[in-house]
Write a structure and sequence with these properties.
Shape of chain A: globular
Largest sheet of chain B: 8 strands, antiparallel
Strand order of the largest sheet of chain A: 1-3-8-9-10
Largest sheet of chain A: 5 strands, mixed
Helix content of chain A: 10-25%
Number of helices of chain A: 2
Number of strands of chain A: 10
Order of helices and strands of chain A: EEEEEHEHEEEE
Oligomer: heterodimer
Order of helices and strands of chain B: HEEHEEHHEEHEEH
Helix content of chain B: 40-55%
Structural class of chain B: alpha+beta
Radius of gyration of chain B: 17 Å
Strand content of chain A: 35-45%
Largest interface: A-B, 31 and 30 residues
Distance between the termini of chain B: 10 Å
Distance between the termini of chain A: 22 Å
């Protein structure tokens, strides 16, 4: 049995085909997946917020899309992935509860926009996207076969294959 | 860090406030369903966002949740979690039969109204409240939203948990509170407790 590595909030993990990567109960956060098919290398990132505020001293670069994703890409390259081979996928950014007082607060939407923009800037093609809505998601990347399994509370599981 | 100025006494005060407010909502709920509900002593922790999930259990478990935001002189989110089986069984054992969703609607109204009412009464703060929302989904996804609303201004959250039980049914409440030092300052000043937020 291939081991499953669980990735928590504001964190990412890159690996070869020896383990599956999984993040559970994703809500308004976004999950970015990077995959290099040729080298059978993959990574999963669970990101909390869109942009690092310019005036904020930050020790946690993994918390924001604009600081997390470039580091995440570099980590993929560090374990032997080829920059040109990298493909991406994006999940999450739900709005579990409406903001009655301030509808502009929708962080899920802002997370999706930010992640897509940064992936685009970094020249990573986004192959699969399942974002928004009002539902939690669990995502598992099976690196050996290049498959992503998406689970939600109400619907059938969906499988995406790179 | 925003919560450095909190000493154990301050935390006890926060705990007591929650205890009284949730106690009131639980006793109202108990009257409504005509069953005795037991409440445990609340726990209070200042936790980093990443660590909150360790306190709440399996993020993938699907639960019924009554969620409500309150804001004004203090701000926060309140969550009441119920396991699916528990709420369905509870609904079926009540004297007045009702379906589980209707029961939840009732519970949400009772718990969140009396929570804020009691909080206002005790602290004398001006607090407003959004209408409670009910959902059934993964625990992690639900908590995530509560955290994210504060994560742009803080890295930690004051996390208060109350557990309740009713026969073998478990009900659980989680509260995410007071994100900013300014709010804490207002709260403790009103209560006449010295608090140095610098």
């Amino acid at each position: 049995m291939t081991q499953i590595k669980h990735i928590g909030i504001s964190d990412y993990f890159v690996s070869n085909a020896s383990q599956h990567l999984r993040t559970s109960g994703l809500g308004s956060c976004v999950c970015v997946i990077l995959y290099d098919r040729q080298h059978q290398l993959g990574g999963l990132s669970h990101i909390m917020l869109p942009e690092r505020p310019a005036n904020k001293k930050v020790h946690d670069f993994k918390k924001y899309c604009n600081t997390n994703i470039p580091l995440f890409i570099q980590s993929m390259i560090d374990i032997g992935a080829s920059r040109k081979e990298l493909q991406g996928a994006l999940f999450g950014g739900a709005e579990m509860f409406r903001y009655q007082k301030n509808p502009l607060m929708n962080i899920g939407k802002r997370n999706i926009a930010s992640a897509l923009r940064i992936l685009h800037e970094q020249d990573i093609p986004v192959q699969f996207e399942n974002v928004g809505g009002r539902k939690g998601r669990t995502i598992q990347l099976n690196i050996d076969i290049g498959q992503i399994l998406l689970r939600t509370a109400f619907e059938e599981d969906i499988i995406y294959t790179f | 860090m925003p919560f450095d100025s909190l000493n154990p006494y301050h935390l006890d005060v926060l705990k007591e406030i929650t205890n009284i407010s949730t106690g009131t909502s639980i006793s109202k709920l108990s009257e409504y369903i005509d069953k005795r509900i037991f409440m445990s002593v609340p726990s209070i922790e200042i936790v980093r966002f990443e660590d909150v999930f360790r306190f709440i259990g399996d993020p993938e478990e699907e639960v019924y949740t009554v969620f409500s935001r309150f804001y004004g002189e203090i701000e926060g989110n309140s969550f009441f979690f119920f396991k699916k089986g528990d709420i369905e069984q509870l609904a079926s054992t009540l004297k007045h039969k009702m379906d589980s969703f209707f029961l939840l609607t009732q519970i949400s109204q009772i718990t969140s109204d009396s929570f804020v009412e009691s909080l206002t009464e005790f602290t004398n703060l001006k607090i407003e409240q959004e209408a409670p929302q009910i959902t059934f989904d993964m625990l992690g996804a639900i908590i995530e939203q509560g955290l994210l609303e504060y994560s742009e201004i803080a890295d930690e959250v004051i996390f208060i948990t109350n557990s309740f039980s009713l026969d073998e049914h478990s009900l659980e409440g989680h509260f995410l509170l007071f994100p900013s030092p300014a709010h804490l300052h207002i709260l403790f000043t009103k209560l006449g407790i010295p608090y140095d937020s610098n």
